[in-house]
Design a protein that fits this description.
single chain, Rossmann fold, seven-stranded mixed β-sheet, 12 helices, globular
Length: 260
């Protein structure tokens, strides 16, 4: 039977919407040195308007709200946005507003924001280059942009394993980009780089799978790939007996280059 046509954006919303509350509560997403640095950077900048792009559970928005005049949490998923709004109300945070939109076509005028931040979102964007160009468009010249995400190793063997398990776990996954790819894409979009800070995140296998409601056959396929992986893959990702493992991450700090 032919399946009805469905856009990638709808696929992402379908994957994450039912798990909105889980992402708001996720310990992996709710803390980290990268999130602390984002808050510290906004404390230096004190933006009048900041954008949390691909906000998910709203952790960036909550972290930077005390340092910002107003924060817009933007995401594809209405369920995610509703969960963020509910959590903001529960916490008594009054300067966070939600707005639905795709990274590749942001519903904001040019130079609307004094800071743009995105965390663990870009690997879901259908066209990351268009998303970065949009981030630059809505950002004032000279203003800061912070990008945090999982990154792919430069080694093709390690890269292939990473993309395979990511896609099996989450069919809306597009790509974890390597740091050289990030540098080239940001340069092309009109950003200059200030700092690149690497990190590592441990993924508890059970909760990593549960957050995305991965189908049982997909979970079995991931465990099969892990068991069959060569020593180089086992070592790099630190694959444990229960399937838990480590991911490479990065926080990139950049600025919007003024138009020539």
């Amino acid at each position: 039977m032919t399946q009805p046509a469905r856009s990638h954006e709808a696929h992402v919303a379908d994957q994450f919407g039912p798990q909105a509350a889980a992402y708001v509560a996720s310990a992996v997403h709710a803390a980290g040195a990268d999130l602390d640095r984002m808050a510290a950077r906004m404390r230096e900048v004190r933006p009048a308007r900041a954008l949390d792009l691909g906000c998910g559970g709203g952790h960036v928005a909550f972290a930077i709200a005390p340092e910002s005049g107003a924060v817009t949490a933007c995401d594809l998923s209405p369920d995610m946005l509703a969960a963020v709004a509910a959590e903001a109300a529960r916490r008594g945070v009054s300067n966070i507003a939600t707005r639905a939109g795709a990274a590749e076509a942001l519903p904001f005028p040019d130079a609307s924001f004094d800071a743009v931040l995105t965390r663990f979102s870009a690997h879901h964007w259908r066209d990351v280059r268009a998303g970065l160009a949009e981030a630059r468009r809505v950002l004032k010249p000279g203003a800061p942009a912070l990008f945090a995400d999982i990154v792919a190793p430069d080694d093709p063997l390690l890269d292939t394993h990473l993309q395979a398990v990511e896609l099996l776990r989450d069919p809306s996954h597009v790509r974890d980009y390597a740091v050289p790819e990030w540098r080239a894409m940001l340069d092309a979009a009109g950003f200059s780089l200030d700092a690149v800070t690497p990190g590592r995140l441990r993924m508890d296998f059970a909760s990593w799978i549960a957050r995305m409601r991965s189908p049982v056959p997909h979970v079995a396929a991931i465990r099969s790939l892990q068991a069959a992986a060569p020593d180089a893959v086992q070592r790099h990702f630190g694959i444990e007996a229960d399937g838990s493992f480590w991911l490479d991450a990065v926080l990139i700090e950049a600025r919007a280059v003024a138009a020539a």
